[in-house]
Specification:
single chain; 271 residues; alpha+beta; 434 Repressor (Amino-terminal Domain); Umud Fragment, subunit A; nine-stranded mixed β-sheet; 9 strands; 41% helix
């Protein structure tokens, strides 16, 4: 039962991931440059590299030494600042981390999805997501805007909430294009005052998944069926620190128990 609850919440919360997965489930194929344009492979690769570094308790310097690649190149790769890493670089990193290229790019996960095993509601949800995104694209083109989806939980937003029901809206992020370009994944709207004074009612958090958060940055994390908005503190044990200091830190021994949704880029706040 616990696994089914987690599955349902992942489908509802991480709808952008599902939207991208939709094309794989429908048998569509993209070449590497097209997928990299979406940022899909790069983001997955960066997340998996950071996951393996954490498991091995390696520094960027250690990965550089083991892979036989320049430190600055590995630093940029881990930080998601290399748009199109070469196959040679990816291969050397995989050898050092003792993993396959398929794993690093997330293909092993996608290829294990059995389309027939998924319930009809998944495809209904994906169809609605695709339709909603196509409407946003049409709106942006006709109004010369740059709107992205905003997820609004149906209930009070609090740290450790069960994020199992949402409504969707849009927000124009044109004013933020100079700072963030195309890395904005979506927005999450704050409902209530439980996260004040850091975030207030009706704030919209712009979420990016261009890279894993750096120490002290705020991210969105899914643990079990609960969503946490926490500061990421790497170490021997992964620490997710409360943003307001009014709760205890969460310490994670197994990074596989945490799904990283994205980092908070900035806040859109009404004047």
């Amino acid at each position: 039962m616990k696994g089914k609850v987690r599955e349902i919440n992942v489908y509802l919360c991480l709808f952008w991931y599902l939207f991208k997965t939709y094309f794989y489930l429908q048998g569509e194929f993209y070449n590497e440059s097209e997928i990299t344009g979406f940022g899909f492979l790069k983001n997955t690769m960066v997340q998996n590299i950071n996951r393996l570094l954490y498991k091995k308790n390696w520094s960027i310097r250690q990965l550089s030494d083991q892979a036989g690649l320049p430190y600055e190149s590995i630093k940029k790769l881990v930080g998601g600042k290399i748009k199109n890493p070469t196959i040679y670089t990816i291969s050397k990193v995989c050898d050092a981390l003792d993993c396959s290229i398929d794993y690093l790019l997330g293909r092993s996960v996608i290829n294990t999805i059995d389309q027939k095993s998924l319930p009809p509601r998944v495809f209904n949800l994906l169809a609605e997501i695709a339709y909603f995104e196509s409407r946003i694209a049409d709106y942006n083109q006709s109004h010369k805007t740059d709107c992205v989806s905003v997820l609004t939980p149906t209930g009070i937003v609090q740290d450790g909430m069960v994020f199992d029901s949402i409504s969707t809206d849009i927000v124009d992020i044109s004013p933020y294009q100079k700072d963030f370009g195309d890395i904005v994944l979506c927005g999450i709207k704050i409902v209530g005052r439980n996260l004040s004074p850091t975030y207030f009612d009706n704030d919209i958090l712009l979420i990016g998944k261009d890279r894993f958060p750096e120490s002290g940055e705020t991210g969105i994390f899914l643990i079990g069926n609960k969503v946490y908005i926490r500061k990421y503190i790497p170490g021997i044990r992964l620490e997710l620190a409360p943003i307001n200091g009014d709760k205890n830190s969460l310490f994670i021994d197994n990074i596989d128990d945490v799904h990283y949704f994205g980092r908070v880029l900035t806040v859109v706040r009404d004047a």
